[in-house]
Amino acid sequence: MAASLAPSTILSSATATKSVQALLTVATKTHVSAAHEPNKHPFPGSAAGLAATALAAATILTTAPPSLADSPPSTYHLYYGTAASAANYGGYGGNASKKDSAEYVYDVPDGWKERLVSKVEKGTNGTDSEFYNPKKRTEKEYLTFLAGFRQLAPKDTVLNNLALSDVELQDLIAGANNISSEEKKDENGQLYYVYEIDGTGAHSLISVTCAQNKLYAHFVNAPSPEWNRDQETLRHIHESFKTVGSY
Prior knowledge:
The protein is of the alpha+beta class. Helix content is 34%, strand content 29%. The protein has a 7-stranded antiparallel β-sheet with strand order 3-4-5-9-8-7-6, with helices on both faces. A 3-stranded antiparallel β-sheet has the order 1-2-10. The protein is globular and about 40 Å long. Mean pLDDT is 77; it is low at 1-44, 54-72 and 91-95.
């Protein structure tokens, strides 16, 4: 059975190389000697066998381990949003029974932080919830809602109307390299508008739907470097948005 070595006993690259050279020298001498005795062959415990073992060990010791890049989170937790009006808003942090009164849900990457939305902000632009990556606060997801909408208007009209109360979205659209939009229906037949905006220095995914006489818009935004790094995670949370009753 092979014995495990403590870190202090592992040879450095330089020491391992010298050891291999020494053993190879011995092996060469042994080979010359064996040439005069053709019936003798190296065996695992011979100098030649030890040289081969040392060479393999040196290869292992001198091979750098692969670098591990920062990977996006692979686990999420489900957020329950209530879409309560500003008049019924229970202060910072919302109420304690969100699951029971939830109107929508979406996934949040573990480790992301919640930004508490003020009553004033909720009343002015309809922001109901927001989470962000603490390593880069502009990498975030948030949801806004507007009451009094029974169905969706044409796709271009909806996007332009959303931008009226969102300065960041206005700037992103104005400097966009490409804007794509499509219609999707879930398994229950509920219609969603899906937008993808490739802007100058930033990327945005938006999902919009109507339910319960309200319009819900879920945003996933990230600067270009974070988008390139975390695209799989960002697309996941974008696709996780659903209104209650449709999941």
